[in-house]
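Work Package 3 (structural annotation) set out to generate three-dimensional models for the target panel prioritized at the project kickoff. During this period the team completed the workflow that converts sequence records into discrete structure tokens, so that structures can be stored uniformly alongside our sequence database. As a representative example, we reproduce one entry of 423 residues exactly as it appears in the project archive.
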Amino acid sequence: MIKKILQLVVVLLFTAQGVMAQSVEIHDVVTAPGDISVQVDMMGYTGTNGNVAAITLSIEFDSDLMDFVGIDDTQLNGSWVVSDDANPIIITYTATPTGTGYDINGKAFDLLFYYRGGFSSDLLFDTVSCEIANSDLAGIPSTYVDGSVTQSAAVGTVSMTALVDTIGNTVYMPVDMDGAAFDSVASVTFKVAFDDCRMSFENIVEDAMTGVTANASDGMLTIEWDGNGATMDFTSHHLFDIEFVYIWDTADVVFVAGCEVSDVDLTPLAVDYTDGVVTPVVESSSLTISDVTGTPDTNVDVPIVAAGFVTDVGAITMNISYDDAKLTYTGYTKQQLLTGWVVTSSNPGLVEMEWSSLTGETLADGDLVTLQFNYDTLGGQADVKFVCGTIVKDVNLVTIPNGFVDGSVTDGSGGGSYTVSGM
């Protein structure tokens, strides 16, 4: 009896494998930048599981990193059509003559791309839009296996660095190039992402690389250089500095897909990119959102405490986020003699507070203002945090460097609050 059961299990397993054996698979490719091909296979479409008469495939990729060129080396007789809209790639196939289907168990075609290098791109099937059909136009159950394009070993590095500076200062992020293969560079494109609420792009300060153009929009900086038709040796050089005004908190400056370094033949080189970051100097003055313990389904007060200010302030902006699933903002009270606060709370989970004075005021150590909330019945930890745009300035509207420390409301049942060191 046991033997018969085992035999039945084996039969069912083979049957299941037969049903699920059909798959469309994109290869994983490790390659140098430039013109590349990525093989796509169709496996198991033979015999009773074959007879492929129609195919629709939808494939997504990173269009900042690669340009789709087309398909090549198709293995099935018939009509192959690629949509003009390159991302996602839509590929359709119809067998000829009509009513015919073909077996296939291997390569189906190649995807052709121009690959800029530096980063990896997944090639992802949109399985909802994919279909394989036989000559009766019945769908063939299929699985879809995603692929990827990854850069081969780099021939050099383009790098930024880590800086520590004072909030409000102008900072200069160096961009350096190092590698023997950079002896005849003809052109570069660098895509650099930054949070424009934390950093404001000002300029490019040229060094070894001159004639650089730069454009910043919505936190994306595009830097280009073409050498005016000449090549340059940048095997180990400081290229230029990116000049920013440092506004807020830890500010990452990150190379992203779309970077490209080309040689004398305009062939893109395999490059590793090292990102930069600016972190704040620890300051003696601070604004701190208090950690408080409250009772669920009651009102709670959350003081914001000033400490260590020795310079008169002329303007304060505090943008404060809170967990609106657990807290409902009901108002505020002021504790120091700063009149004329403008407070907006129309956006859920955000309180925006602004104050200014032409003559300036002294911030004493102690509570500055107190936020008032209703604490939800279920309790739990509710974070209250300073967010981008928070800043303190003197009467000349020069930023006063200081720290911003986050807080929370808890009911004492666990979890506790946490602190984020600000600036």
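Confidence is low (pLDDT under 50) at residues 1-20, 414-423.
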